[in-house]
Amino acid sequence: MFKQIFQSNVVPYRLPNDWAGVPTGIGLQSLYHPELVTPPRGYAEEIDRIDGMYTSKVSTANSQSTITIIGWTRRIYWPGWDRLYWRFDATTGVFIERGPNLASYYDYNVYQSTDGSVWRVRIGGSFVQIDPQTTEALAGTAREPSEFGVAAVYLPLVDRMNNLLIAATSRHLGQPMISVFNWTTGAHIREIRVSGPPINLMPEDGHRCWVVSDNGILNLVDYMTGQVLSALKDPLPLGNGVTYSWDLFTRRLLAFHQIADATDGACLSRVTGYYPVPIPVKITAPIPLRAVRAGRKTSVLCRTYGDTGEGLSAGKLGVTVAGNGVLAAAIPSPDSTGYTTFQVSGLAAGSVGINLSLEVL
Length: 361
Hints:
By secondary structure, the chain is mostly beta strands. It contains no helices and 26 strands. The chain starts with a strand and ends with a strand.
């Protein structure tokens, strides 16, 4: 489970008069996307799609880092579109600035890596490092998919410290797999099966990453060993204008949720931050480990688990016993895998009812 702990300002849209040097007051027939300024709408742009999101160690008055979103807009003035970045304070969520995304038509989504570097995927499956402040491609950093023995690299995560590339590639297109390569030689090292076809890779620390799958499940993966350490449900549904990123500095999940604009055209989309918190959501039915009999104690088993079926030790279990039985001892806390065993004593011939409740702490 994820607990919401942060929310940024909404992305501010510009008004028709905010473009310096652009004539205003011209008829709607002369505008690109006149629907944007058709009453009751009045803003001169709207978000079209998002290419990615990342954090940078750039200090502000309130924070040690900033959040950058890169995407496209539709606008009323020529050429009718824009490629921009928007920057927010990572502590307060206050909007800082916008600027031009210097990508070309051949450049697509951006992804962050373990050292904070940002990489942009290009047409043909190659990828290149960009300056996180200017968004300009850095000379001499481009890597071709053929260097790794594949036709295309779709999701690159670069770990220079361990000399690795973790990626989703054409090798397993549409399959629940990611691959690990030697960064220098391009040699394939291992494959890791995850919960679903990956759509994003996010560095978590020096040897682990989050894998966002297209089925709404997040896997925490140790790519040095190939182990899947945990599985959590995404806090926001995918396929609804949601872009995820992991904040390397505050260690929280960031989600940019692109939602419909307000009636007057004002943007309502913003960045939300979440912290992974193990919260049990269900309890199994109580299972007597042997038949309840009058005059003897019977152990009863149950399990608490989270939203993806993982056993969790969090929470306080409550037990009530009705009919011809009583609780025989104090209720222990769930163990590390979510199992709890307690005892019920039968009093006389008849029936015994056992009811469970869970207090989420």
